[in-house]
Amino acid sequence: MDKQEIQDLTKALETSPENIYLRLVLIKKLRKSPEHVELLSFHLIELLKYDPNNIEGKNFLAQYYFQIGKLSACIVLGEELEAKDNLSIETKLILSQAYYRENNLSKAKDLYEEVLDEDPDMYIEELDDAFRIKLDYLEEGYTDSHFLEKPTMNFKDVGGMKNVKKEIELKIIKPLEHAELYAKYGKKVGGGLLLYGPPGCGKTYIAKATAGEIKANFINVSLNDILDMFIGNSEKNLHDIFELARENTPCVLFVDEIDALGAKRSDLRQSAGKNVINQFLAELDGIDSNNEGILVIGATNTPWHLDSAFRRPGRFDRIIFVPPPDEESKIEILKLKLEGKPIDHIDYKAVIKNTKDFSGADIDALIDIAIEGKLEKAMETGEAEPIQTKDLVAASKLHKASTIDWFTTAKNYALFANQSGLYNEILKYIK
After folding, report:
1. Residue 253 is inside which H or E element, if any?
2. Are residues 335 and 197 in the same domain?
3. 3-state class of 218 per DSSP?
4. Terminus of the chain with fewer CB atoms < 10 Å: N or C?
5. Residues 176, 309: one domain?
């Protein structure tokens, strides 16, 4: 900022204080200079003293109030400008932020949407994170990297899970490889696949590896990406994500904790939750859109909480149980997880002897415990020692399997609520 220019303009206004044009020029320069906040305040007030109806000056003053934290003053002046249709788009965005910080979320959201309608490039993280509506304003051909990715991993990067891989290959990969053959019989490529089992057994990992195996795009959707406090927005977010998948086929759309989005409608008291489920079912059916080339993979730890409508043919009719890894799989997982770490002749069979019901996440925890012990010793001696079999065995005895509670609950459903045979795989595993 040219200090001399500010000084010259200030002197000029001392001799001609009523010169509105000069004062506006000075104000615009002061607004770009954080160290002149007090001087900016003085000249804004002086401007409006000589020209009380100056629209540009009032907009600048409203923005100034927000800048110094006077939110109430910003809102009062902003509402006055809005009532007379004199609110600039910059002030409208500022006013939206002021409403948001004063917890007037409805007005904040309405104004923010108006701003984005006028200029999509004016989105800001604070409001976008709050209202999750940026997807509505993406430019044509643009994809949000937060949602869309191209996995480089495949089944080789997933330790064990032979049966799960085999089922996915038969139900998903083969149809994609022979799409023309399937088309002759009127069979669509894609559809829904439900993975269920105890937490930490690699459901997310296998879904991502599936996308890599078939060289498809991958969209990982969490509850936060869909659920919204405003009625109607959750359904809209869900539709936008499906549209993103449709525009980027072949695509694997992975929905984690799907039971939270697709809970039994009879258990829901509020209609808003039922509306989200109905929207989800409509997107799966592709009534108004083409879902060809989209594989929707849902993952849940509690399949008994999922609405039965999701398991109807054409939706999540292919259901795969993802159990804790077997002994061979545990050894593969240990080797993958220890790759690149300092190790010394590990007896993997000895390590897994005390890992009954361990999930992949439990094996991760086991390795972390062993590493922590090594780090503690290294900080005392100043030397980094390799991880040995005895370290991992000791760690396996300290850690308890996280899947035990899950199997206790699942066993009750498998024994007493299994008329459809859905949980037969659980009973086989327990036996």
Report:
1. strand 251-255
2. no
3. strand
4. C
5. yes
Q: Which amino acid is at 213?
A: E
Let me know the angle formed at the C-alpha of 398 by 396 and 403, rounded to the nearest 5 degrees. Answer: 70
For residue 361, what is the domain's CATH number?
1.10.8.60
Instruction: Indicate whether 125 and 189 sit together in one domain.
Output: no
Residue 406 located in a structural domain: no
Distance CA 137, CA 127 (A): 14
Under 8 Å between Cβ of 198 and 403: yes
| DSSP designation for 171 | I
Q: Are residues 104 and 165 in the same domain?
A: no
- The CATH number linked to 50 is 1.25.40.10
**For residue 87, what are the contacts with CB-CB under 8 A and spacing of at least 6?**
59, 78, 81, 95
| pTM exceeding 0.70 | no
Query: What does the block give as tokens for 243?
Result: 């549209």
How confident is the prediction along the chain (431 residues), in pLDDT tens digits per residue?
A: 467 788 888 788 888 888 888 888 888 888 877 677 778 888 888 888 889 889 998 999 898 889 888 888 899 899 999 888 999 999 999 999 998 888 787 788 888 888 888 887 787 877 877 765 444 443 343 345 456 888 888 888 887 788 888 888 877 777 777 777 777 776 666 678 899 999 988 888 898 898 898 888 899 887 777 876 666 778 888 888 888 888 888 888 998 888 877 655 555 445 556 778 888 888 888 766 778 888 899 999 988 888 888 888 778 878 889 999 888 889 988 998 898 888 988 999 999 999 999 998 999 999 999 999 888 888 878 777 899 999 999 999 999 999 999 999 998 988 888 888 888 989 988 87
Angle between helices 20-30 and 3-15 (to 10 degrees): 150
How far CA 63 is from CA of 68, 84, 104, 114, 333, in Å, comes to: 9, 17, 18, 18, 56
Same domain, 162 and 276: yes
Handedness of CA 319, 181, 162, 431 (dihedral sign): positive
